[in-house]
Structure formats: structure tokens, C-alpha cells
């Protein structure tokens, strides 16, 4: 098979592996040597005394996407499918074993040979699924579709776009207004510097209550920013219009899912405000206009849009109803995924800004050569 172009599967596999490490070692302490255990015993995993049905499914299914993504990443790099299968299955088994051994040192985590078997089996099934998809020609057709619609060197950007919906599960201060990390960052700094001379030097955020115009603008920017990143990855053509409306549908849908998970299915559509619809319409209209522009121009336009979103959303005053939403959200372990969706909700716009800056810089360097 001929060499293939870079794939977002490699970046997604890396991100998913980081998620597996995060979930397996959370809460990352306290760390201690297991009492009375010689070092030779560390590499032997005990068989579990009892089984929990949820753990069985979570351990097996949790590694399946990783095995599939590793297979696709290796296959897309031009390697034989057999090698992709072996690397996908073996890498999952090796990672699972390393994490199970590490759990000896983390309080409240219990290493288990049964978990390793289920994790390895899930990775094996994912790699087998990759083999099946190659045999059916699904991955080949998907690769051709990707090359028709998207630029060849946009693997990292596509992976970043795939993470955008997950960040929307964390309740933002306004619909689609991701990126309010500064209050939490200052609160953590204040706690860290408590009873030190530096604590008095930390800034105090007062914020402003969003008016109808400001609220609509922030919501519109929250939709326009990922659309511009997407258009910076996309070849020109009619499919850009479909992708913009697809981004709108994903944004609205995931916000409704977040409300349903936090407050119940009957509250899935309780999140819109009087300024939400104008903001969404404005963001969609601007994105459709930008769909007429080259990818490089969209990357440039994304820089002030991401910056404006981060500045405005971090200047919003706390809202009583939003704080109530956070309290309800924090009680749902399945919604917060050990805090992963919260981190994505905070940092995704900053990651998007960084990718667009790298894209513009690389474009300027290539034109200067």
C-alpha cells in the first residue's frame, strides 16, 4: 500500500490514551509504596475477589476505541494491516498493564488482573474492528472522503474539532461560551498562595452582568470560533455550507444533552435565553460568509474571534443560576468524566487559538521560502 497522508487518528489516539491514563490514576494520590509488599510482587496482578457489572463493561469497552484508533493511525501511515493490528492490540495491553501496576501506588485504586484482561480484550476487539473495516473498504472510502473535503495537513485540527462537543457538556456561563478558565485559575492560585505575601497581589475579578447584546455576541462567537477553525481545515466547495450547519446542529444538540444530563430530560431545552437565537443566527451567518474565503484567511480571522471569546467570557460576572447548574453537574460522575469535560470546556478555545496561530505561522513561513 502506498504511503498515506497524516491522519487525525494519531492525535485522537494520543488524546484517548491520555484520557485512559487520567481515568485509571485519578485522583493522582496520595502516592505511597504498598505496605509490606516486596518489589518483586509489584509485577503480579491479583485476581479480583468480586465483579461489578459496570466495571466489566467499562474496562472492556473503554479500550476498544483506543485499539481502533491505534490501528487506523498505523494503517494511515502506510503500514501493513497486520502490523497495524499487532501494534494496536499490543499497545493497549502494554498500557493497561503499566497502569494496573502503577495503581499499587495510588490510594483508593485497586490493581486487578481481571481489569487487565478486560482492557486487553477491548483493545484487541478494537484492532479486530479496524481489520474488518479495512476488509470492507470502509476506511479506504473514509480516507478518500477526508482528502476531498479537508486539507492534507490538518490532522491535529480535526482531532481538536472532534473534542469540541465533549467540552460543551460542561455548563458554560452562556450557551456555547467555552473558555472561562480565569476565575478557577485565580481561585487555585489564591488557595496555593494562602498565608503568603503574594496572595495580596492577585487580581480580583468583578466581572459584568451580560446584557442582551453582550450575551448574544458571546454565544455567536462561541459558534463562530469552531466554525472558523473548521473552515481553516476545509477545502473550498459546497460541503463547507453543510459543515457549518452541522456545527450548528452539534452545538445546539450537545448543549441540550448537557442540560438533560444535569437537570433531567424534561429540561433539555431549558437553556435558550432571549439572546440565544439572535446570537446563533449571527454566528451562523458570519460562518457562511467566511465559507467563501480561503482556508488561510479563515485561520487568520479565527485569531481575533478566539481572542474576543476568551476576553468576553472571562469578564462575565458569576450568575446564580449558572452556579446552581455547576453544583448539579458536579454531582454526576458520568457527566463530568473525572473532570475531563470541565478541562475541555475551560481550555478548548485556548487550544483552538494555539492551533490557528501555528497554522498562520506555518503558512507565512512557507510563503517566505
TrEMBL record:
It comes from the Bacteria. InterPro entries: VanZ-like. Keywords: Membrane, Transmembrane, Transmembrane helix. Residues 47-132 form the VanZ-like domain. The chain crosses the membrane at residues 56-75, 82-105, 117-138, 150-170, 213-234, 241-263, 275-293, 300-317, 337-358. It holds the Pfam family VanZ. This is VanZ family protein. It comes from Inhella proteolytica. The lineage of its organism: Bacteria, Pseudomonadati, Pseudomonadota, Betaproteobacteria, Burkholderiales.
Amino acid at each position: 500500500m502506498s504511503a498515506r497522508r497524516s491522519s487525525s487518528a494519531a492525535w485522537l489516539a494520543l488524546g484517548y490514551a491520555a484520557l485512559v491514563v487520567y481515568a485509571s490514576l485519578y485522583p493522582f494520590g496520595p502516592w505511597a509504596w504498598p505496605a509490606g509488599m516486596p518489589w518483586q510482587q509489584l509485577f503480579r496482578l491479583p485476581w479480583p475477589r468480586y465483579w461489578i457489572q459496570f466495571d466489566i463493561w467499562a474496562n472492556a469497552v473503554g479500550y476498544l476505541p483506543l485499539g481502533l484508533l491505534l490501528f487506523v493511525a498505523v494503517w494511515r501511515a502506510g503500514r501493513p494491516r497486520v502490523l497495524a493490528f499487532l501494534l494496536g492490540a499490543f499497545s493497549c495491553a502494554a498500557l493497561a498493564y503499566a497502569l494496573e501496576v502503577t495503581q499499587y501506588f495510588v490510594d483508593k485504586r485497586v490493581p486487578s488482573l481481571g481489569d487487565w484482561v478486560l482492557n486487553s480484550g477491548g483493545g484487541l476487539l478494537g484492532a479486530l474492528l479496524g481489520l474488518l473495516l479495512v476488509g470492507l473498504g470502509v476506511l479506504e472510502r473514509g480516507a478518500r472522503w477526508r482528502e476531498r473535503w479537508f486539507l492534507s495537513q490538518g490532522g491535529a485540527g480535526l482531532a481538536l474539532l472532534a473534542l469540541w462537543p465533549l467540552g460543551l457538556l460542561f455548563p458554560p456561563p452562556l450557551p456555547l461560551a467555552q473558555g472561562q478558565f480565569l476565575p478557577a485559575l485565580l481561585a487555585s492560585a489564591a488557595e496555593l498562595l494562602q498565608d503568603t505575601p503574594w496572595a495580596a497581589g492577585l487580581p480580583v475579578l468583578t466581572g459584568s452582568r451580560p446584557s442582551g447584546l453582550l450575551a448574544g455576541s458571546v454565544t455567536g462567537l462561541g459558534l463562530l470560533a469552531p466554525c472558523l477553525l473548521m473552515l481553516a481545515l476545509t477545502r473550498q466547495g459546497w460541503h463547507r455550507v453543510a459543515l457549518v450547519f452541522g456545527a450548528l446542529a452539534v452545538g445546539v444538540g450537545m448543549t441540550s444533552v448537557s442540560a438533560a444530563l444535569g437537570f433531567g430530560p424534561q429540561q433539555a431545552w431549558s437553556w435558550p435565553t432571549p439572546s440565544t437565537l439572535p446570537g446563533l443566527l449571527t454566528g451562523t451567518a458570519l460562518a457562511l460568509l467566511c465559507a467563501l474565503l480561503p482556508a488561510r484567511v479563515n485561520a487568520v480571522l479565527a485569531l481575533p474571534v478566539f481572542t474576543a471569546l476568551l476576553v468576553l467570557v472571562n469578564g462575565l460576572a458569576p450568575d446564580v443560576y449558572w452556579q446552581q447548574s455547576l453544583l448539579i453537574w458536579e454531582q454526576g460522575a458520568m457527566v463530568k468524566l473525572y473532570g475531563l469535560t470541565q478541562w475541555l470546556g475551560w481550555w478548548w478555545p485556548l487550544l483552538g487559538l494555539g492551533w490557528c496561530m501555528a497554522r498562520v505561522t506555518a503558512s507565512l513561513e512557507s510563503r517566505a521560502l
